[in-house]
Amino acid sequence: MQDRIGFSRPRRELLFRLNRGLAVETGSGRLQRLDADAQQVLYRLRAERPVRDVVLRYHGRPVFSGRRGLGGMPQGDLSPGGVYLDDASAWYPLTDQTISGARVDVRAPDGWQVLSQGRRSESEGRQRWQSEQPAQALYLVGGPYHRHARRHGDITLAVWLLHDDPALAKRYLDLMGGYIDHYSALIGPYPYARFTVLENRWPTGLGMPSFTLLGGQVMRLPFIPYTSLPHEILHNWWGNGVWVDYRKGNWSEGLTAYLADHWMKTRRGKGAEYRLRALQRYSNYAARGRDMPLLDFVSRHDEASQSVGYSKSLMFFHMLRRALGDAGFEAGLRRLWQRHRYQAIGFEQALRVITGDDPALMRRFLPWLRRKGAPRLALSEVRLQTAGKGVRLSFRLSRRGPEDAVLDVPVEITLADGSRRREQVRLDARARQVRLRLPGPPAVLRIDPDYDVLRYLDPREQPPALSLLLGGHTWLVLPAQAPAEQRAAWQALAEAWRQRYPDLKVTDDGHTAAIPPGDNRLILGWDNRALETGPLSDEGFVLSADRLRVAGEGKQEARAFPRGRFAVVRVNTRPDGVAFGFIGATTPQTIRALARKLPHYGAYGVLAFDEQGAQNRFKATPANPHSPLVYRWSR
Q1: E-assigned strand segments in 457-558
Q2: Which of the four CATH numbers 3.40.1180.10, 3.40.50.980, 1.10.390.10, 3.40.640.10 does domain 98-241 have?
Q3: What is the pLDDT of residues 197-229, one digit of tens each?
Q4: At what angle do helices 347-355 and 313-340 cross, to 10 degrees?
Q5: For residues 613 and 599, what is the distance between their CA atoms, to the nearest angstrom?
Q6: pLDDT tens digit string along 285-328?
Q7: What's the predicted TM-score (pTM) here?
């Protein structure tokens, strides 16, 4: 390989790192090896006089550590199956300077396509990528790809597939341009010449400048074009356009999740549902001693860190948007893009730009970045009093948690005639007595009904869902008398989940009397002696000793999922907030499949899977009638 590195001004010295599997030489000066580790070597190049560029020649085979990332993806790969190289691979000279532009010329094996940043061209058997945008890193990805592309104005949209599927490519291409147009109007023009969806050999969802790497199975899931795709496109503005100074907090993931994942749900009228699930993840995985300040989040490595960097962060941006108003928030986004494109900034700086450095807003929102934890809301002292032709409603709204938290809490009153009234209560102290005059008697009072406030949810207000069990102090109850192979599969599930969820404990169905009454429990197996169908049933979802029955709604007929044909999951909560759950399966293969799959179904409390193949056939999240933030008047 030959690499010409140009400088913005003449210089005599260059420090760079290169993969230790590559031998390097130069005619541009004296090369000195300074230091090395298991993968990279630090070099110093000194020229006799100041020069505007240097030429390095290197050859060999890069070496990679055995460290694996998300989805088991290696740090780098150069094999007959394909190539993946990034800055961690040190496949090109790494310096402490921003890359102001690059041209990459590659001669690839016959039948291969290679991708890097910028505009693509081919000449004399070589593939060239040329970019004029500043970058923090250069990527090279290649393999036996099938390319599908179309123009969208000045932008090339493309889908590269290892396993060709023209219909799949069309599905992505039909959507990509609309997402790019939406974010261009919201933030500023799309910054790159192209956007490519690239099929990865590992199950990932990674966003790089102008392309995304999606695992082959991942990208074929029907919901991914409506969830991961807009998220990865938006990263071209946040993360790959305005860079993250990770020493000062990763703001990009929360803002991207808010403007992509949350936006996709909101446009379908499901924004409140999405925020509820975000608060569930945060409350169940981070609240129990694993929370952290937003400034401390760098990247996700488990459920707790993900619930902070994505869920807590997106709720922070949601509250900020409500405080600024839509127009003010969107103006702040455009300001952030215009001022800091191709610069690395931290969370506080991003906040200052979005708010316009407004002193009052900074005093209110800056503490959220520096502290861990969140408030908990409580409703009490609800009273009604006749007042002429109407009534006076009074109640006490209080919070526990951070002393300096200032919350704008939505309140909804449904009157007896079916009409609704909305109020907003500023809670800037531990408690506030609220008094409202109503035209008629109320039927229901709801505090924060659409989950607009960043807070810890009370277990009693959460819909019963697996995340409530997996994130809390829960006992996994094994079936001691199940057949040996089945019992071993349940034991393996319990061991794997304990490594992933540190608050889980394990016992068997002969020792349930020792479980503290306030702890959750998850019963494993149809033959479990601790299975009590009463706590796990309601009118809509009835669990018996041999089946799960689902009541029909509207035009939908009632359904039954019998033991032997289906594996089922049922979660329910008592009025005191203690959660009970059950997982029923009959074959070791299905149990092993559920061990892998169920952590991805944490938002659901009722599930059914085929016993053969473990394909999901039903999922639902039951309502929770026990919320302490809802007050109902009896008729």
Answers
A1: 474-478, 505-508, 520-524, 541-543, 547-550
A2: 1.10.390.10
A3: 999 999 888 999 999 999 999 999 999 999 999
A4: 80
A5: 17
A6: 987 778 999 999 999 888 889 999 999 999 999 999 999 999 99
A7: 0.90
